[in-house]
Write a structure and sequence with these properties.
- By secondary structure, this protein is an alpha+beta fold.
- The chain has a domain of 242 residues: Metallo-dependent phosphatases (Purple Acid Phosphatase, chain A, domain 2, 4-Layer Sandwich), CATH 3.60.21.10.
- It contains six helices and 26 strands.
- The strands form six sheets. The protein has an eight-stranded mixed beta sheet with strand order 1-23-19-22-18-17-16-15, with no helix packed on it.
- A hairpin with a 7-residue loop joins β2 and β3.
- The protein is globular and about 65 Å long.
- The two termini are 32 Å apart.
- The N terminus is likely disordered.
- The structure holds 2-acetamido-2-deoxy-beta-D-glucopyranose (5 copies) and fe (ii) ion.
């Protein structure tokens, strides 16, 4: 009953107060075109030449602090070698690490041989080359390890979500690569291949996505979050193990943060502490994810990593009609902790549009007190929806009206974002829309750190 009264109150407020109007609903109009998947014969999906050549190469952080890298790749014809040969550019001394191989079946699809190799004890802030495969089909790549973890270490993250493999996805990735703001690692908020869009979840679309993304994922770590399109749960064809293709293909260093499942974990990288949550795993009280997060948040030492960032798939503050309120259950569980621990930024995807919130919280409600509207709270995070990677489902362009007060900027366009951490107090954030030139920042804010410099960094005019 209380809840109904509450909805009614919200309804009245929405329809009577001009003061409730929020920030900017961008007037930019993107031309309406369907997003279609690139066909298998597209250039971006080409197989590397040669028998059993390593393909779909991707790397991610392999430990808690950034001195390890997990290298993953697929060989299609036979297991081949699971060894990575690697060397620091500055001294050329070669090392070897050998990983493990796995395969899986999905309905009538059988995967290639999926290799995962964790290279450990790397030096910080060092360029490494690495080589996979044997003989004629050897392939060489490189990556940079991050600087040692520390409070004033500048570092730039790229942000993408819901990428898929359409022509628009390719434009998003190209804009990220061509952006003069050079991302050093990608925080990816879930929904990778959209293979589940196809009949029987044609897992060859997982393979083609791996080949498409390789031009970035082989050279810089992508920090993975699981989305709903990673579930691949399809009992009608006997596929009852959620996340099967994703978990076989993408590995994360979850044990290093005391997690018991790869779907939620944390890493430190430079001056940031990144917590990854799973919107599609249990998070109610007493569940493993709940228990882990409860113990995890107090471990964050802001003197070491000032920037506390959370990634999840389903957004908590979303004023698009698409997926409206889907993130509500998790918000109810965890939002008080985020405010208490002064999380700086929360990035989510899922909604195929862009939105940035002000610093608000909605934690006062207790069923009977009627306090059920978001209020400005400078201890609260800014929530950013960056699910605008350009996948086959197209744009989510219908917004709830009027724009709620908590919403600072929203726009239905494809794009990506960058977060340039400058030092412990300042981080410059920008959203870049695909329709603009590479250097254009369509929405930018200088965020100030909630622990070290908790100023009012809001951008809407609030009375
Ligand atoms: C899987 O089954 C579908 C439908 O029967 C068929 O079109 C497809 O070619 C099969 N794929 C494989 C790899 O056998
Ligand atoms: C994808 O983008 C790259 C880089 O801009 C370009 O070379 C390639 O031709 C594009 N492929 C497709 C299928 O659009
Ligand atoms: C937090 O990190 C700082 C800087 O590394 C260190 O001096 C301090 O001991 C740490 N605090 C705790 C409680 O571990
Ligand atoms: C912001 O949240 C904190 C932590 O829960 C709380 O103490 C404070 O009263 C809140 N401020 C407002 C304006 O609600
Ligand atoms: C931190 O970075 C901001 C933005 O670049 C700059 O204005 C500020 O002076 C820096 N703080 C320190 C202590 O260097
Ligand atoms: Fe999604």
């Amino acid at each position: 009953m209380g809840l109904y009264v509450c909805f009614f109150v919200v309804f009245l407020m929405l329809y009577h107060g001009p003061c409730i109007n929020g920030g900017i609903t961008s007037s930019f109009v993107r031309k309406e075109e369907k997003s279609i998947d690139m066909p298998f014969h597209s250039d971006v999906f080409s197989h590397p030449p040669g028998y059993n050549a390593p393909q779909q190469v991707h790397i991610t952080q392999g430990d808690h602090v950034g001195r390890a890298v997990i290298v993953s790749w697929v060989t299609q014809d036979e297991p081949g070698s699971s060894t990575v040969v690697y060397w620091a550019e500055k001294n050329n001394q070669k090392f070897k690490a050998t990983g493990r191989t796995t395969t899986y079946k999905y309905y009538n699809y059988t995967s290639g041989f999926i290799h995962h190799c964790n290279i450990m004890n790397l030096e910080f802030d060092t360029k490494y080359h690495y080589q996979l495969g044997t003989g004629q089909t050897t392939r060489r790549f490189w990556f940079m390890t991050p600087p040692p973890v520390g409070p004033d270490v500048p570092y730039t993250f790229g942000l993408m979500g819901d990428l898929g493999q359409t022509y628009d996805s390719n434009v998003t990735l190209t804009h990220y690569e061509m952006n003069p703001v050079k991302g050093q690692a990608v925080l990816f908020v879930g929904d990778l291949s959209y293979a589940d869009y196809y009949k029987f979840h044609d897992n060859s679309r997982w393979d083609s996505w791996g080949r498409f993304a390789e031009r970035s994922t082989a050279y810089q770590p992508w920090i993975w979050t699981a989305g709903n399109h990673e579930l691949d749960f399809e009992p009608s064809i006997g596929e009852t193990k959620p996340f099967k293709p994703f978990l076989h293909r993408y590995r994360v260093p979850y044990k290093a943060s005391g997690s018991t499942e790869p779907l939620w974990y944390s890493i430190k990288r430079a001056s940031a502490y990144i917590i990854v949550l799973s919107s599609y795993s249990a998070f109610g009280m007493y569940t493993p994810q709940y228990q882990w997060l409860l113990e995890e948040l107090p471990k964050v030492n802001r003197s070491e990593t000032p920037w506390l960032i959370v990634l999840m798939h389903s957004p908590w503050y979303n004023s698009n009609s698409y997926h409206y309120m889907e993130g509500e259950t998790m918000r109810v569980m965890f939002e008080p902790w985020f405010v208490e621990h002064k999380v700086d930024l929360v990035f989510a995807g899922h909604v195929h549009s862009y939105e940035r919130s002000e610093r608000v919280s909605n934690i006062a409600y207790n069923i009977v007190n009627g306090e059920c509207s978001p209020v400005k709270n400078l201890s609260a995070p800014v929530y950013i929806t960056i699910g605008d990677g350009g996948n086959i489902e197209g744009l989510a362009s219908i917004m709830t009206e009027p724009q709620p007060k908590y919403s600072a900027y929203r726009e239905a366009s494809f794009g990506h974002a960058t977060l340039e951490i400058k030092n412990r107090t300042h981080a410059y954030y920008s959203w870049h829309r695909n329709s603009d030139g590479y250097a254009v920042r369509a929405d930018s804010v200088m965020f100030t750190n909630r622990h070290w410099h908790p100023m009012d960094d809001s951008t809407s005019k609030t009375e």
